[in-house]
Amino acid sequence: MHWPALLFPADIRPDAMPMIRRTIPPTVIKCAVVVTPMLLWASPSVAAPEATQSIDTVWIALAAALVFFMQAGFALLESGMARSKNAINVIMKNYADVCLGSLVFCLVGFGLMFGTNPTGFWGTDHFWLNPNAQWDWTFVLFQTMFAATAATIASGTMAERTRFGGYLIAACFIMGVLYPVFGSWVWGSAYHGSGWLAQLGFIDFAGSTVVHSLGAWVALAGALVVGPRIGRFDADGKPRRIAGHNSSYVAMGGFILWLGWFGFNGGSTLAADVAIGLINLNTHLSACAGAAGALLACRLTGVKVRVEHVVNGSLGGLVGITAGCATMDPLYAIITGFVAGIVVVLGSRLLLRLKVDDVVGAIPVHGFAGAWGTLAAGLFYRGDLFSVELVVVQLTGVLVCFVWAFVGALIIYGLINAVSPLRADAQHEQRGLDITEHGEIGYPEFGSNKAYNSRTLEVIEP
Amino acid sequence: MSAEAEQTLKRRIVFTALADYLSGESLMQALNLWEANYAAKPVYALNEFVGKLGEHPAIAGKRKDVIRTLLSLSQNPVGLLPNPTAQHTSFKPVARPEPGVYPERLDKVFAHFLTALEMVMPADEFVTLRLSFLLRLNDMPLNPTLKARLRMWFDSEGSDRTFSVVCNAPEIRRVVNQLYVALCEQYGPVQADDTLAATVMWLERKHPACVRDIRRFL
């Protein structure tokens, strides 16, 4: 296999990736460090000794659990940012897309993403949970949690006006086709062959682009198909604030996501290794810097600092560092996170100007900050700082992801919308999707002074 | 208060309470039944009276609500309809209706809803809402009579307004939803939710007997 020269920076230190050094020849290490070290590790041909593999398995299973716990973070964050009449619907979408999407990814998506990839465009085997080695089960587990994260990002953006059924069908297509096909271009070298973006030298260690930006571009397509909530913008196009029902949930969701990210990035080594310390330090520092960047951006733009700004700023920092957390020094991680925090605040304003209604700010957090973080991973690449060539490759990956995910999602949502409207009708928006989709009320013992309360349920008609 | 004035007040209370459920001939027959058998009896006899009315489809299942309204108006006789003396004659037995013969009469309840909406909104905002709703009315899939009544109501001012038309819950629900959408577009969804909630609360206080029907509109 031919590797471009930029994949071999002269001063890659062997101790930067000790877990790879343990078992993989130096030439492979250089490729692996740049592209996706974890995937080569997954190959049975480079399997570690049994004892090491057991420890690795324990760490990755734990990391998978941490990534799974991020779903709770998403659920709390998104639910808190929605109005109380839609709280259950948001939670249900998060819960159900993980359940259905995980099945679809395990059975179909995993093979498309990680199966033997002779063309560089998609995997051709390992469908229907068909592993070669014991380690593969761990790999499937961890990657399934990643896929679930990509799918759930859209739920927050499209909250409060999207039908439950249509959303779930789309989530299955995203986890079954959109995400794994793009993933195969970047990470598709687990068994044989390699993705075409990986061959260009695209760096995305844990998925700033593959997971987060992809999810955000899908969300953008969804937001355009369903349109803004009724009354979100006034007749002059100015946005009206629709406050979420529980800022404490938002903050708690932010903390849980932050915790889960240590598994998301730290687990992406696919090995229990000393490199995890640096990776997770970078992760933490970037999140802190993201919050600081958001605070500054709020101050400079004269916006009062709300919980959602700080939480989204830190999440922007986390998304931003995800691509380069293994190949960047901590000071650059701070810069990456700080800029990501600013990008999140300014990106939210841009979307409002474009009249895109993103309920939780997922597009700036996962999309804009993810794109920035992917560029930063090239810009601040340890041993080859500010390499134009590398940045060009990164930019190519970012743009390709946007086109693939956005256009693909537009087609998926458009087709679903043509069969059965994806947008909930005005009556459902009035009642709240908790009642119309689930026949429940989020807080039945409270809110007796609301138009819709538990007494309404006794007589409500479809 | 003289005995005659007291009797008139009682009659108005019964008439007002029942008008939320019955109209026309049915209402007159119910009032005659009360006049003939219960007018001279103490308040607790209303329980039996309402029990007899329970056979009527419009009252069936709402016995508690009717009694609650009657008692509430007895304690606080505010907002009573005029004395119906001239309209009713001697007692005629209530004919047992064929099931399904009675069309739903939700117009009075909806009229209360519109009044409540006007009460809870600032006057200038309500005027804007009326205009906005009138603009939407043409495109709404409603029966022409209802549409005409709605246009008349939203086009006129204060005491001139009456709303009397046979209409069912799905139709009224569409109207309420369009009012909600108009509110959202004028003032945003947060204020629209608040206004809707305030309207329902106002109705629950002033017309407790209508609560069940009001919730069918939502």
What's the short version?
The complex is a heterodimer of chains A (462) and B (218). In chain A, 66% of the residues lie in helices and 0% in strands.
How would you describe what is shown here?
The complex is a heterodimer of chains A (462) and B (218). Chain A is globular, with a radius of gyration of 22 Å. The longest helix of chain A is centred in the first third of the chain and has 32 residues, at 50-81. Chain A is 66% helix and 0% strand. In chain A, helix 4 (50-81) runs parallel beside helix 6 (134-157) and helix 10 packs parallel to helix 12. Chain A has helices at residues 18-21, 26-34, 37-42, 50-81, 87-114, 134-157, 164-187, 196-200, 208-226, 247-266, 275-301, 307-322, 330-353, 362-379, 388-419, 426-431, 433-438, 454-459. Chain A has 462 residues and is mostly helical. In chain B, helix 1 (3-19) runs antiparallel to helix 4. Residues 89-103 of chain B have low confidence and may be disordered. Chain B has 218 residues and is an all-alpha fold. Chains A and B meet through helix 16 and helix 18 of A and helix 8, helix 9 and helix 10 of B.
Series of secondary-structure elements of chain A, N-terminal to C-terminal: HHHHHHHHHHHHHHHHHH
Helix percent of chain A reads 55-70%
Instruction: Report low-confidence residues of chain A grouped into runs of 5 or more.
Output: 1-46
Strand content of chain B: under 5%
Tell me, rounded to a whole number, the average pLDDT of chain A: 88
Termini distance of chain B? 42 Å
Largest sheet of chain A: none
Integer-rounded radius of gyration of chain B: 18 Å
Report Rg of chain A: 22 Å
Shape of chain A: globular
- Give the termini separation of chain A: 62 Å
